[in-house]
Amino acid sequence: MANGILGSADLAATTYTEIYEVPADTFAVVTVSFVNKDTTSKTVRLAVAKPAESLPQADDYLEYEAEILPGGVLERTGVVLEAGRKVFGHASATNVAVVVYGIETATA
Questions:
Q1: DSSP letter (8 states) at residue 6
Q2: Cα 37 from chain centroid?
Q3: Is 13 in a helix, a strand, or coil?
Q4: How many C-alpha atoms does 86 have within 13 Å on its Cβ side?
Q5: Mean pLDDT of the chain
Q6: Which of 37, 44, 34 shows the shortest CA–CA distance to 92?
Q7: Predicted structure pTM score
Q8: Can you say how many angstroms the Cα of residue 34 is from the centroid of all Cα atoms in its chain?
Q9: Which strands form 26-36's sheet, in the order they lie side by side?
Q10: Is the N or the C terminus of the chain less surrounded, counting Cβ atoms within 10 Å?
Q11: Do 8 and 30 form a contact (C-beta atoms < 8 A)?
């Protein structure tokens, strides 16, 4: 089972990006951290999609249009995910990076 950084991305503007998917027969406890690398404010979305979904649905969001100031960070800790869940990031503009880090534990 993996631990440490499980996924990361430099987000494209207004595009959903899958950052991490929990492997089969596993659960994960993760922290998701967005950082605004720009000199202007950005908004971000954080969603945890269900296994059968290829994009987030209306009830999948943990953050929606949350503002991050220039050089700022938005972090969600202690997010527990079952097998097949997918973490998606979205930003209003470029220069936003996201990292998912934590631990995976086998369930079988």
A1: E
A2: 17
A3: strand
A4: 15
A5: 97
A6: 44
A7: 0.96
A8: 8
A9: 3-11, 96-106, 26-36, 73-81
A10: C
A11: no
